[in-house]
Amino acid sequence: MILELNIKNFAIINDLKISFTKGFNVLTGETGAGKSIIIDAVGLILGDRSNKDFIKVGQDKSIIEALFYLENPSHVKKLLGSYGIQYELDDTLLITREIHKNGRSFSRVNGHTITLNMLRKITSSLVDIYGQHEHQSLLNSENHIELIDLLGDKDLILHKKEIRREYIQLNELKNKLSKIVTDEKERERKIDLLKFQLDEINSGSLKLDEENELINKYTKLSNLEEIAKKLNSVHTILDSDDYNNSSVIDELNKVSNMLNNISKFDNNIKEYEKNINEIIYQIQDLTRDIRNYYENIDYDVEKLSILEERMELINKLKRKYGNTIDEILEYRDNIEEELNIIINNEKQINILKSDIEQLNIKILNESKILSKKRIKVIKTFEKKMIDELYNLNMKNIKFKVNHEILNTPNINGIDKVEFLIATNLGEPLRKLSKIVSGGEMSRIMLAFKSIIVGVDNISTMIFDEIDTGISGRTAQIVGEKIVNISRNHQVLCITHLPQIAAMSDSHYLINKIEDNGNVRTVVNRLDYKSKIEELSRLLGGVNLTDTTRLHAEEMIKMSKKYK
Q: Is pTM beyond 0.85 here?
């Protein structure tokens, strides 16, 4: 329920704080005082779209804040957890909406910024607002089956949930089948394309490390002349036959002789000589190897051509199927799997068709059971609605739930229901939206709410001037119905009728006052004496008399007796 509502810089409201109570809360006041503005503010808290025109003239932003107490917190608690919002241990929920002059708005729950869609999901089970022109749930025939199911037992709800689950599963199977069963020409074209690509890749006989090895071989073969020339030069430097030029080995031999000549003076020098001789032997071996290498170089043009063709084939496949041989082989494996699925999908198609057929039969059987349960609910509901409407002074009314059996089940089963009504003698039954007046619609809605009051999970109901078009004894009955609803729900009701206002547990008077040239709205919770004065105004207008006050006091006493 709503514990507190704070509104700042909204329309003609400067700074307003209202603390509501459990039970039946009534708001009254002169036309234009700001009663409906308060309901608009609650609508924004629930997720209605904002408009910068709501902002009070001369201000940069409007702020609306509502503090809720959650009597059945499980649904909201689960949602908050999924959004990463901390749940308060005292079962309170603080919702804030800010509307800025630039057109942007911000929504917060317990201090966490959330999207408008998230806000609507959180508040969907908190408050229902019913106004003179806000009976869409009853006027829209598509909602009627949901309203009937509200009155069903647990078994009905379980059957409905099972049908919904199976229907979703059925659609998933149908979508899967439609993706597999494509146009035959398209299927053949796809098979031909995949086979061509697979053959082209397989014909390449690619190996994972092949490319680097090819590059090394190609680099060597294409530079053989340069290699032979350089190696010949290296050989000449290391060991030349030219007596005019000294080679590396010649110079090292000279070093060896020098060391040998002086080693007789110092035995340590013999070790140097030994090391130099070992180096000479190593260089001589190396020189022989280099000579053998370049003398045996075979410059094979055909081998080079084969390497070039192989590298070009790999580059061609890379341009078409992947940047590396790894990627090409991975692509090959994927299209091979896809090809096998397409070629072998006949078996899968038959399996899916069989599953779909079995699920269709199961849904149909479940729907028939659900339909029988709904028929029982409909019969009870029709009788209760007629009784409730009769009590609301609609004596000649006929009410019927039109029930049809569909050929094909949908997510709700095989039932199609629609509420039909005739409000006067001799009139045929018609759709609600075609015939009812505002006052009649208010009473129909109240009758329905009176029936579902025990199963409706909405904790707070707001009735915005639903008393239009009624008066006298009918107004008294409407007030009594709202009192009955308020026993299980918090009710906020804007009314002009004293018969309804007298039934309230808490009465709030809304006034519009001028303050230094500015107009602002103020709200006061009335005590017993002030409530008598306000009821007297509703009864007698501007000129209050002792008679109207006595009448007002009598109405309050009678309402307490009823409650």
A: no
